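Bug #77: duplicate submission created two jobs. Keeping one. Sequence:
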Amino acid sequence: MTVSGKTFVITGAATGIGLATARMAAARGANVVLADISHEGEDAAADIRANGGNATFVRCDVTSAVEVTNLMSAAAGTFGGIDVLHNNAGIHEGMITEHFEFESMPIEVFEKVMAVNVRGAFLCSQSALPYLKASTRGPNIINAGSTAGFAGYPFGLAYGTSKGAISMFTRNLAVALAPFGIRVNCYAPASVDTNMVRDVSASIGAHVSAGDPLPANPNAAQLGAHLVRRIGHPDDIAELVCFLASDAAGFVDGAVWLIDGGVMAWRDTVEALGMR
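Kept job's structure:
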């Protein structure tokens, strides 16, 4: 399994899963383009270069067609092409509102989550397509899904809806791009130790009252729902992304991979018996 020589474009790469993937891919010989709305990605790219990797940073808002076009052009201009697109940028409504319930959620919040999580993946995939079609190094797209796209969760209506959309976007895009030899896959984690998960958990914890359907300590609930009795680490997901991006995954296409510590294997039992 190797990604050496491939050029990755990774959105949402300043922190979390995106950053872990950038570091891992670069350490294995890939060229990495870190894209993020935050300038923290610039420091991350510099750190990768300081450790001997090939990396550059491009600031990009994935909801902007102009900025996405500039991102892909800059990536291809720097490294001579694009072989792997990792659509990792994403947000949860808990990052931008205290109104989690459907009846009180502002439509602007729902639209923002869908814009970043779904529109962003669409724009990036479409803009990267000419470069992926020109690639001779096993071109592929890897999307960020979630277990929230498989089952309903309290306080995650917009996020879960967006991740369900990403699962179907992955399958349909795999069909559309198969004639060009471009694979499209998706990973679907449960809780992963990232800034987003910590921030959203804290927001939910502050919001929950005695009568709500979540415990006051959502972190404990997350841990108890995982059969492996730990939440994920960004490197756990990065390993899967690097595999899917490699030629070793050449027979994997249109797949949505659960990487959830066993959460979905017994989620119905957990809910029914109150075992969290």
